[in-house]
Design goal:
There is one protein chain. The chain has helices at 3-14, 26-45, 53-68, 74-158. By secondary structure, it is mainly alpha-helical. It has a domain at 3-91. Helix 1 packs across helix 2, helix 2 packs antiparallel against helix 3 (53-68) and helix 3 packs antiparallel against helix 4 (74-158). The radius of gyration is 47 Å and the shape is rod-shaped. It starts with a helix and ends in a 9-residue tail after the last helix. The relative contact order is 0.06.
Length: 167
């Protein structure tokens, strides 16, 4: 789309954006309009993903000049504000997506570590049960051995001498 078509489209949609302009010279009005048309053309030609903040800064500079001459370019200023907001949101979205990806990796690592610890805990609990069973068995054995020892001691005490009660 060439400048004349863009200029005509602007006038059709927004009316005479130069009506409050402080410039007297039609030549300078036309030069300023061409600058505005170049901004519009660049916006049409550039995909948002390819838009650079430096380009947008340049567009704002052109608009500030046009606004200082009372060109009615609020509509274009609003569009640039929306573009900046989307570009900023895209940057924020990328940061959040990167952070989400990192958190997912970390959560997976934690989940794996937790699973290993749970397996270790189950093994420890099993080992503890076995040791408790062995402890019970050994304590029963100790009681049985103490009973046998006490029985033998008692028998031995009743026979202080070998001969008493023999004859």
């Amino acid at each position: 789309m060439d400048s004349s078509h863009i200029m005509q489209a602007i006038f059709n949609k927004y009316g005479d954006i130069t009506k409050a302009c402080t410039l007297q010279s039609e030549l300078f009005k036309t030069l300023c309009l061409e600058g505005i048309c170049k901004v519009v053309q660049k916006l049409y030609d550039t995909h948002l993903a390819d838009m650079k903040f430096d380009d947008v800064k340049g567009f704002y500079s052109i608009l500030r000049d046009a606004e200082s001459l009372n060109f009615d370019v609020k509509w274009l200023h609003q569009r640039l504000d929306e573009i900046v907001k989307v570009m900023t949101s895209k940057d924020e979205l990328k940061k959040l997506e990167d952070e989400l990806r990192e958190s997912k990796v970390k959560a997976e690592e934690i989940s794996n570590a937790l699973e290993l610890k749970t397996i270790e805990q189950a093994k420890l609990e099993h080992d503890i049960e076995k040791l408790e069973e062995q402890n019970v068995i050994e304590n029963l054995k100790i009681e049985e051995l103490n009973a046998q020892i006490d029985n033998i001691k008692s028998t031995c005490l009743s026979f202080k001498q070998v001969t008493p009660g023999l004859l």
